[in-house]
Design a protein that fits this description.
four-stranded antiparallel β-sheet, five-stranded mixed β-sheet, single chain, Papain-like cysteine peptidase, 11 strands
């Protein structure tokens, strides 16, 4: 079947799917296309909060030499605000970084970038209301994602409209590579053979990504994702709720892990 890359939008967790879309003719920039999403929880919380206080000046800190990090939602974007190592005897990292751009200039750069991001928020809100796109999320290499987290994000998206979420994770069996499984209305899980290396997000598994997108389109086009959206607060049968301690430890691992 044909493949229309404009029917898809990336929700992160990094630039990999953005490069795939670009290579297939979708050059439209969106909120998360070139972002780094540190875990699925912050993304879900941002959507549930309707983007409230996203990229607030006081919450923006250095992520690396050319990216800044919203520490309230754990999302990083490329930026003209520059950073340097706080301790020059150690390598620059998000745990050892400070802004090198002077504050007055940084405030102006933040104003400009915030205006652009809010523009993309408006476009995303519109897309969520129309429900015409398939939103795609893939975890970072070092992040694990549970089915409970996947379902929660999917139902959050469905609370805006008849949206479809495709979550792509590594296949545990060779036979699963390139296949898509429907979890519930508007929620699909795809399986890939590999993700792109963290420092080469454009080195993706192109053939498998294409198979996954075509399978998702086929599912949506035959009307499999048109059932009423379930309540976001509905219970998930057979899934034990993660404890607050476990979630805190997971966030700590994500924060201290290598990119």
């Amino acid at each position: 079947m044909s493949f229309d890359a404009h029917r898809f939008e990336s929700l992160g967790a990094n630039c990999e799917f953005g490069f795939f879309l670009q290579d297939h003719g979708n050059h439209e920039t969106s909120l998360f296309k070139w972002a780094e999403v540190i875990g699925i929880d912050g993304l879900t919380r941002l959507l549930r909060n309707d983007f409230e206080a996203m990229f607030a000046y006081e919450n923006v800190v250095p992520f690396n030499a050319s990216m800044v990090f919203d520490r309230s939602y754990w999302i990083a974007w490329h930026s003209k605000m520059q950073a340097e190592a706080a301790d020059p005897t150690k390598p620059l990292s998000r745990m050892n970084a400070r802004f090198s751009t002077p504050e007055p200039e940084r405030r102006k750069l933040w104003n400009d970038q915030n205006a652009k991001l809010q523009h993309f928020v408006g476009k995303l809100r519109q897309g969520l209301r129309t429900g015409e796109r398939i939103f795609v999320y893939k975890p970072r290499l070092q992040d694990a994602v549970t089915e409970e987290e996947i379902v929660t994000l999917g139902r959050t998206l469905r609370s805006f409209g008849s949206n479809t979420l495709l979550v792509v994770t590594l296949a545990e069996r060779p036979d699963d590579v390139g296949t898509v499984r429907r979890i519930e209305a508007g929620l699909l899980r795809g399986f890939i053979d590999r993700f792109a290396p963290g420092d080469r997000a454009n080195d993706y598994s192109g053939e498998v990504w294409l198979r996954l997108c075509r399978a998702a389109l086929e599912d949506v086009d035959r009307g499999a994702a048109t059932e009423p959206a379930p309540s976001v607060t509905a219970s998930i049968p057979g899934k034990a709720k993660s404890s607050a301690v476990a979630k805190a430890l997971a966030r700590l691992r994500r924060w201290t892990g290598l990119r």
